[in-house]
Structure formats: C-alpha cells, structure tokens
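Input.
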Amino acid sequence: MGESKQYIWYASYGSNINIERFLCYIKGGKPEGSTKVETGCDDPSLPIDDANFKINYPIYFAKESARWNHQGVAFIGLTETSETSTLSRKFLITEEQFLDVLKQENNGIVIDIDLNEVKEAGSKIFRNNSWYGNILYLGEDDGYPTFTFTAPWDINDVEKVKPSHQYLKTIIEGLKADYSNAEIYAYLINKPGIQGNYSDEELNSLI
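Output.
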C-alpha cells in the first residue's frame, strides 16, 4: 500500500454486490445483463480486500434505469433501523477509486468531495436531482471508514418499480457467495419493488 493512497471501504448493495459487475467500474467493461459499457477508474487496481457486510438501512427498488432494461434499481432508505438490514459486500479501494465509481454512477459528472467532511456529518447530498447523489458514512472497520451512496430522497418519497430479471439475477449471483438459495429468497421476496411484482415461482427461477 503506497503511503500516498488513502483507502476506504465501499459498501455495495445493488448490482455492485456482484464482484464481476463491480469490477467493470474499476477496470471498465460491459457487465452481463447491462446495456452500458463502463469507463472504469483512472486507477484500475483491484480492491485489496472485500468482505460480507450488513447495512442497517432498508433496501428498495425504484426508478427506471436505461442500463437495466428501463426497470427498477436498488437504493437504500435514509433512516437507520435495527429491525431490518441490507445485505452488502464491501470493497477496500482508494478514495480516488470510490469517487471514480461515484462519478460513473452519476453519468460522468465531475465530483470533488472531501470524504472527511462526509464522515463528520454522517452524510452529504452533493447533487439533489441525482439518483445516487447522496453519500452515507457507515462507520469504521479495521481502521478504515466505510461509505456507500444512495438517493437524496427517502424510501417513502418515490414509487417502487420492479427490477428486471437481469438486474436481480446480478444481485442474486453476488449474494450466492455468502448465502443459500433459501436465504436469498427470504431476503428478497418482501423488499419494496419486488413484493407484489415477483411471484414465488418467478423469483425462484432466478435463484
């Protein structure tokens, strides 16, 4: 680890929970099931560590993503809760890589953010009209701060939308690294955007 590099944990919860999909944001490339070729980071170095992680904010699916068949994608709500947790995989990457990933998630806009300020405040909305314009600080682990990003709005402020088979399959394949098929089904079936939009048979067919 070079002394000039500052490392942070990026906690992923949507399609980036699938390491092959996430690495398209690092190295560039077109994820399976997506329609967009990602540009990658200026520094294409692989994460130096990754681990299973749980986020104490609720996951839901909303909006219509051009990347994923114009159907819903994952966000997390803004109210921390001990009653439910969002399954995640965290990646130990540099601050610059995190901001590059965030840039790609925000359609290439230039992002200049001091993550120390986010850490002190707990969160920072840097773009009000952006789907992923809100950075959340999730605490420390092994001496490194943990961050994720989501929407500026909260879970009850937006219509829930069914995610595509391709998008949900990408998440499911990522979850399989740590969870059984039954655990994945139980985790997903009642999530807003999936509940009422996916039958038991349809969801199980993807698992």
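The chain has one domain: 7-206.
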